[in-house]
Amino acid sequence: MLLFSNTKRRESPQATLFLDRDGVINEDHGYVHSKKNFDFLSGIFELAVAARTNGYLCVVVTNQAGIGRGLYSTRQFKTLSTWMCRQFKIRGAFIDAIYYSPYHPTEAKGRYLLKEATRKPGVGMFLEAAEELNIDLSKSIMIGNKVSDVEASAKANIPSNYLLSSSCINLHQSLRGKVEIVYDLPAIVSRLQW
After folding, report:
1. CA 72 to CA 64: how far, in whole Å?
2. Coil, helix or strand at residue 32
3. Where does residue 139 rank: exposed (0-12), middle (13-18), buried (19+ CB within 10 A)?
4. Tens digits of residue pLDDT in 130-177
5. Which of these is catalytic: 22, 136, 149, 184?
6. Residue 20 catalytic?
7. Structure pTM?
8. In what order do the strands lie in the sheet with 57-63?
9. What is the pLDDT of residues 164-184, one digit of tens each?
10. Catalytic residue among 20, 39, 136, 184, which?
11. Cβ 97 vs Cβ 60: under 8 Å
12. How would you classify the pairing of strands 179-182 and 97-101?
């Protein structure tokens, strides 16, 4: 589900850098919903600047089950997201759009208690972004910090998938060769061949 877009649909298909939020853009302190516990990861602004310099859109795709669980509201999430985008802009970086999924199949409440294709490892957010922004998924990149992030992007046929992790992770056989495990954002910047 689109939270907001800062860009218009392009005429020609656009390569995109997809980013998960918690654990990629900021430290994952668990259900982050205010700027007081929003700590940017080292290297995130440089990564976003490099994407823009090389002609890539920068799109956030984030599971936000905290909304569905009633821990914070969509309004709080939007307020924080607006602030986050402003911090990118101040540093010469740019977030083109944010897609989120407030659903959870077992822990959410009311209308959010749903197994829904936008929640990663579902591909819904990637497909929505591709349709609405004219994104070429076959030339795009995904950076996530959970296996479900890269499962979703691999299913969406994104060829360059990075799993940001400080521990050793055994990837399911279906992801081997499709996902590279890296330990920090600067390591990803040095590997990318825009």
Report:
1. 10
2. coil
3. middle
4. 999 999 999 999 999 999 999 999 999 999 999 998 777 777 877 878
5. 22
6. yes
7. 0.95
8. 2-5, 97-101, 57-63, 16-19, 141-144, 160-164, 179-182
9. 987 777 778 778 788 999 999
10. 20
11. yes
12. unpaired
